[in-house]
Amino acid sequence: MILQHEPAQGPGYLLQCLREQDIPVHLIRPDLGEAVPRNASAFGGVVLLGSDHGVHDGLPWIRAEQSLLIDALRSSRPVLGHCFGAQQLARAMGADVTRNPRPDIGWRELWITPTARSLFGGQDRLLSFNWHYDSFQIPAGATRTLFGSNCLNKGFSLGPHVGLQSHLEVTEQGLRDWCAHGRDELRHGRGLTVQSEAEILAALPERLTRLRQAAGSLYRHWIGQLDRPPVFGRRHAA
After folding, report:
1. Does residue 238 sit within a domain?
2. Which of 64, 69, 101, 210 is deepest in the core (most CB within 10 A)?
3. Which distant-in-sequence residues (6+ apart) come within 8 Å of 226 by Cβ?
4. Domain range holding 22?
5. Domains of the chain: total
6. Mind listing the pLDDT tens digit for each residue in 194-233?
7. What is the mean pLDDT of residues 115-132?
8. Structural domain includes residue 233
9. Exposed (0-12), middle (13-18) or buried (19+): which is 96, by Cβ within 10 Å?
10. Quick one: how far is CA 87 from the chain centroid?
């Protein structure tokens, strides 16, 4: 199950990796009024993507996702959260989500912790795309996997669950759509930690090639832990 919350923040490269493993995907859009399932055990795993909303916004679908995540944790269904999705996962695990000291928007070099390097293909650094204002604390019992100069807690793992305060799933077209959607936000937010649209879109083929070396390794690891029931989902992602 993939929970998508914004038109310009789709599953991207993750969807390609899932298809390569012949895993059907049930894509849900809670932001458009589609119901969030209550029972995670009906699915092999749960993916949460990014959102322009924050986890404390109090919207009904945000609360419904919290209930779903708590059920996923209880039933040991693997969860993979990207940015807002990672904040939702951290919160379901009892960790705080607060305002980051500064916005973090654009391409950044992140450091991979020694214990997590096998997840990312043996690399010690990761060039990743970021677009967030909040950040999570590392949940109790979890291990930090990524950290950066603008945000200390960029990733964590706990058993089959992975939270990423960055976007490993992005594609070239997805980034162009996202920048078009957030153009005013980029114009008003310019600063040392907010890149311009031109800076974000520069050298995309090279950047995405580097990103996918690490992202592919992590995604394959997570996919390998999925419980594959006879029907993984009902509606396939486009």
Report:
1. no
2. 69
3. 23, 44, 45, 78, 232
4. 2-223
5. 1
6. 999 999 999 999 999 999 999 999 999 999 999 765 444 4
7. 97
8. no
9. exposed
10. 9
Q: 3-state SS of the chain: helix, strand, coil percent to 5?
A: 35, 25, 40
**Beta pairing partners, 77:** none
H-state helical runs in 128-182: 172-181
Q: What CATH code is carried by the domain that includes residue 20?
A: 3.40.50.880
Asked if the structure places residue 79 within a domain, the reply is yes
48-66: average pLDDT: 98
* CA 158 to each of CA 59, 96, 118, 165, 174: distance values in angstroms, whole numbers, following the listed order: 27, 16, 15, 15, 29
Neighbours of 160 (CB within 10 A): 19
Extended beta strands in 6-124, E state: 27-28, 46-48, 79-82, 97-112
Per residue in 28-44, pLDDT (tens digit) is 999 999 999 999 999 99
- Whether 73 maps to a domain, the answer reads yes
Over the stretch 60-85, which tens digit does the pLDDT of each residue have?
999 999 999 999 999 999 999 999 99
How far apart CA 104 and CA 163 sit, in angstroms, is 17
